[in-house]
Amino acid sequence: MMEIRPLLMCFALCVVYATSKPTEKKERVHHDAPLSSREHDDAQGFDYDHDAFLGQKEAKSFDELSPEESKRRLGVIVVKIDGDSDGFVTEVELKAWIKKAQKKYIYENVDRQWKDFDVNNDGMISWEEYRNVTYGTYLDDPEPDDGYNYQHMMARDERRFKMADQNGDQIANKEEFTAFLHPEEYDHMKDIVVLETMEDIDKNGDGFIDLNEYIGDMYNHEDEMEEPDWVATEREQFSEFRDKNKDGKMDREETMDWILPSDYDHAEAEAKHLVYESDSNKDGKLSKEEILNKYDLFVGSQATDFGEALVRHDEF
Predict the structure, then answer these.
(1) What is the C-alpha separation between 101 and 306, in angstroms, rounded?
(2) Using CA atoms, how far apart are residues 37 and 56, in angstroms rounded to an integer?
(3) DSSP readout, the chain?
(4) Which residues does the UniProt record annotate as the domain EF-hand (predicted)?
(5) Contact at 8 Å (CB) between 172 and 125?
(6) How far apart are CA 177 and CA 112, in angstroms?
(7) Distance from C-alpha of 248 to C-alpha of 143, rounded to nearest angstrom
(8) Partners of 172 in the beta sheet?
(9) Whole-angstrom Cα distance, residue 136 to residue 265?
């Protein structure tokens, strides 16, 4: 429990009261990581598809497996991908699986923190548990001498917790807690990401981000230093692209377009590709048989992203 408080201090220092070096650019924009570092060229092999479907980090886990064993394990995973258990895998289900596989590092991060907050070991984390572990005795001192407003920080956390808690019971399951810790990864949390960003940058409290606030968030000016070239570029970016309605400031919609851009959806494109290549009867969805018939496209003789977990347990 004591380890949480230094983390809180670090979070407050790095996020709420960020003080980057004068010549460093703070990055606010959230981009999806690429599915693979390899070129997507099926004529040269299915390495890209394996990385996308399995997750890059784990794609080599089953290199030593025979094709028969890989195919057998893929059959188990097909059942997991089929979210509605109708016997078919749709593009939507495949896209969700790929996104989950690519975000394994996020789930690992949540797993590491889970035991610290689930105080009563009931497999859930209540707001009360999170509040007590994170803030604890800091709230007993109405005027802390370290410069941090813990009441404000706690209120902000509670607001985010409530948005992540989709059933409104003030208790987070694993997925809800993941949304709380990593809101940028969830569509229903985008509004809170934008709101928190605007609150951080909007120093005059008018509900908008003007040019000076935009630059001030990225660059800590020091009189004795010459302004780096990238600052001038960002001024142009603000005027030409960020401030779409040319009123000299960014509103909520403009801020969302900036920090959460509508990037090309690689997971959706890969899901469409896998279905197109495997859908032998062209009904727009994949049966287990169709997937296994093209097993080398999905896994070949390599593991799924969850291969290690499957090996650790006796699901096979």
Answers:
(1) 8
(2) 8
(3) -TTHHHHHHHHIIIIIT----TTPPPP----PPPS-SS---GGG-SHHHHHHHH-GGGTTTTTTS-HHHHHHHHHHHHHHH-TT-SSEE-HHHHHHHHHHHHTHHHHHHHHHHHHHH-TT-SS-EEHHHHHHHHTGGGGG-SS-TTS--HHHHHHHHHHHHHHH-TT-SSEE-HHHHHHHH-GGG-GGGHHHHHHHHHHHH-TT-SSSEEHHHHHHHH----TTSPPPHHHHHHHHHIIIII-TT-SSEE-HHHHHHHHS-----HHHHHHHHHHHHH-TT-SSSEEHHHHHHTHHHHTTTS--TTHHHHHHS---
(4) 69-104, 105-140, 152-187, 189-224, 266-301
(5) yes
(6) 12
(7) 37
(8) 125
(9) 41
Which residue's structure tokens are 């604890």? 136
Burial class (CB in 10 A: 0-12, 13-18, 19+), 75: middle
Residue 59 has pLDDT above 70, yes or no: no
What single-letter amino acid sits at 275? Answer: V
Find tokens 């290690």 and name the residue: 308
- Average pLDDT over every residue of 131-159: 83
165-212: pLDDT as tens digits: 999 999 999 999 999 999 998 999 999 999 999 999 999 999 999 999
